[in-house]
UniProtKB/TrEMBL annotation:
Organism listed in the record: Zhongshania antarctica
A Pfam family this chain is assigned to: dNK
GO cellular component: cytoplasm
Transmembrane domains' residue ranges: none
Zinc-finger as UniProt keyword: no
Keywords, alphabetical: ATP-binding, Kinase, Nucleotide-binding, Transferase
Name the UniProt record assigns to this protein: Deoxyadenosine/deoxycytidine kinase
């Protein structure tokens, strides 16, 4: 363990961190929690998904077939607009942490849409793609479906409790397949099953130290447990 306390000292002064970090993973894995904490520690701008703004999401979880396309297109336009706004404001000249990468959007579409809807979605996706920088580091959080379900139940969002296990298994498998062949950025894979970055400061501090060393390739983070 280094003598520096990374939780109380600006990490930017110890070693230059990646300027654009994206945290990804399936629902319930803790990506937004980690993204927020990283942004606070590094004094980075936050770029977060706004699931609560999607008016179709509750209907989607209650009955996927009746609202899949509406929910998917809303998220697509929302993410594209966020990134377009950032491009226009030159925020990408600054440092930031996101809890999504735009290129993963079709992952959900392939699971939830029928063939005709998917064809329409793909046409729209091609039209709204925005030119964004490639992340300097992508952190992929993974966990078994049982862990995801337990965490979804614990956070207490009523309509999320109707998410069925089959959907979680498909999403989890799609993420695993996607990142198995992901090579666009340096990639840090973390099994988040027994990691609590929200409350365990020692685990979180180890992660901060570890990500400072990453400049290329694929990496796996396993903290020392205390």
């Amino acid at each position: 363990m280094t003598n520096h306390n990374l939780l109380n000292e600006p990490i930017i002064n110890l070693r230059q961190p990646p300027r654009f970090i994206a945290v990804e993973g399936p629902i319930g894995v803790g990506k937004t929690t980690l993204a927020r904490r990283l942004a606070e520690s590094l004094n980075f701008h936050q770029l977060l998904e706004k699931a609560e703004d999607n008016p179709f999401l509750e209907r989607f979880y209650a009955n996927q077939r009746h609202a899949a396309l509406s929910a998917q297109l809303f998220f697509l336009f929302q993410r594209a607009q966020q990134l377009s706004d950032l491009r226009q404001s030159d925020l990408f000249e600054q440092t930031h942490v996101a809890d999504f990468i735009f290129q993963k959007d079709p992952l959900f579409a392939k699971i939830t849409l029928d063939s005709n809807e998917l064809e329409l979605y793909n046409k729209v996706y091609e039209q709204v793609q925005v030119d964004i920088p490639t992340p300097d580091l992508v952190i992929y959080l993974q966990a078994p479906v049982k862990v995801l379900r337990d965490r979804i139940q614990q956070r207490g969002v009523n309509f999320e409790r109707s998410i069925d296990t089959d959907y979680l298994e498909k999403i989890n498998g799609a993420y695993s397949e996607y990142f198995h062949s992901y090579h666009d950025s340096p990639l840090l894979i973390i099994n988040a099953s027994e990691i609590d970055f929200a409350h365990n400061d020692q685990q979180y501090e180890q992660l901060l130290q570890y990500l400072l060393e990453i400049r290329s390739g694929r990496h796996y983070f396993n903290p020392t447990f205390f």
